[in-house]
Amino acid sequence: MKTRLLMLLSVFMAITSVGWMQAQSITYYKTGSGSGGTGTEQDPIVKISLDEILGDANAKTESDSIVVSLSNGDYTAASGTFPITKSGISIIGTDSNKVVIKSPFDITPVSYTHLTLPTKA
Q1: Best label site of 95, 108, 109, 120, fewest CB within 10 Å?
Q2: Residue 41 in contact with residue 65, Cβ under 8 Å?
Q3: 121 residues of the chain, pLDDT tens digit each
């Protein structure tokens, strides 16, 4: 009897724990000419500048994570700094030798465990 109860309890816990897991929502952006995109990895949202991307990304409430892919080039903030006010923003350059961010980031209350910036090896 005790074995059956333990077995039923373990099956119940296994079945109910599946509902507690949530898929992470990730929105993808990239720099480039034009506009559009759905925000998926295959069809990222296209913005002309990193300023535009961060403005849009900071305002997003439905995404757990934001992944920004920067094309080769130099990036300078119009306001002097690139503001990041949302946790979970990753900025990835296509080539660490050809993507240069010339302005500092103004990072206000975000979790540093979720911030990913490219570094030179």
Answers
A1: 120
A2: no
A3: 666 666 666 655 555 555 444 556 888 999 888 778 999 989 999 998 889 999 998 888 777 788 999 988 888 888 888 888 888 888 888 887 888 888 877 776 545 555 566 666 5
Tokens of 61: 């409430």
Between CA 99 and CA 79 the distance in angstroms is: 20
Residue 58 CB burial class (10 angstroms; 0-12, 13-18, ≥19): middle
Report the alpha-carbon distance of residue 65 to residue 58 in Å, rounded.
11
Cite the beta strand spans of 22-117 per DSSP E: 26-31, 45-47, 65-70, 73-75, 82-84, 89-93, 99-101, 105-107
For the chain, the helix, strand and coil percentages under 3-state DSSP, each to the nearest 5: 25, 30, 45
Cβ proximity of 57 and 89 under 8 Å: yes
